[in-house]
Amino acid sequence: MHKYALASLTLLSCALGSASARDLAAIKASGVLYVGTEPTYAPFTYTQGKKVVGFEAELAEALARKLGVKVEWRPSGFDTLLIGLSRDRFDLVVSSHGITPERQKAVDFANPHYCSGGVVLAKASGPLTVAALKGKAVAVQLGTTYAQRAQKLPGLGSVRTYPTNADALQMVLNGRADAFVTDRFVALEARKKFPQANLKLGEMLFQEKIGIAVKKGNAPLRGAVNTALRGVMADGTYQKISTKYFGEDIRCK
Ligand code: ARG
What we know:
Blueprint: H1 3-15, H2 24-30, E1 32-37, E2 40-41, E3 45-48, E4 51-53, H3 55-67, E5 70-75, H4 81-86, E6 92-98, H5 101-106, E7 107-109, E8 114-123, E9 137-141, H6 145-152, E10 158-162, H7 165-173, E11 179-183, H8 184-193, E12 199-215, H9 219-234, H10 237-246
Parallel strand pairs: 1-5, 1-6, 9-10, 9-11
Antiparallel strand pairs: 2-3, 3-4, 6-12, 7-12, 8-11, 8-12
Bound molecules: arginine.
The site of arginine has 14 residues, from β6.
């Protein structure tokens, strides 16, 4: 996320501090957990008709079951999710956020629910290494750690940001961008989904731990999410969902 956007997000979350955040008791009493996500990010959260589905969708629903509540999804732009959390638009944000020191100033994170990293994705004839990206047009999703990293790579022709993950992927599919920097599992999924595009995964740029965000200071909710997460990781639920989407267990080792 942009430095200034983050600074204002931090200010905002302080200013709105104790507005009307729902505590754990209020969530349990209502029976509903409001969860924000940007659902064009297959296979983590994406839509099937009106339903939000995917690895993180099923995981969030399994966590909610442990808490005795139901998830109500609130799809939103990725760059608005953490601000929305500070403004009490959601109880949780489950949208594959990398746990970064900047974001930790604005929100609190549960323990990581998977580990992955940013990778270069291009057509087989396209640039697959940082060296080959010199002078090339790179697409990324707005507000992501991939955008941040791509903007720091020296010598790129351009870095264009798109509001959704799907839009950024589209640019490399239709040849308007030479490469796309995104999550490794998102890249694998895109390669599988668009075989005619002959996509290839290139250099891994960095690794990150991915976490669920709660409003800054909501320690009881964060604790309940961590307990539920430990539960699904211990009872086989996590492994089952992970194997369904990835053929492997993607928890941090
Ligand atoms: N892992 C990246 C980040 O932390 C990207 C997450 C994008 N998520 C999404 N649902 N579009 O910024």
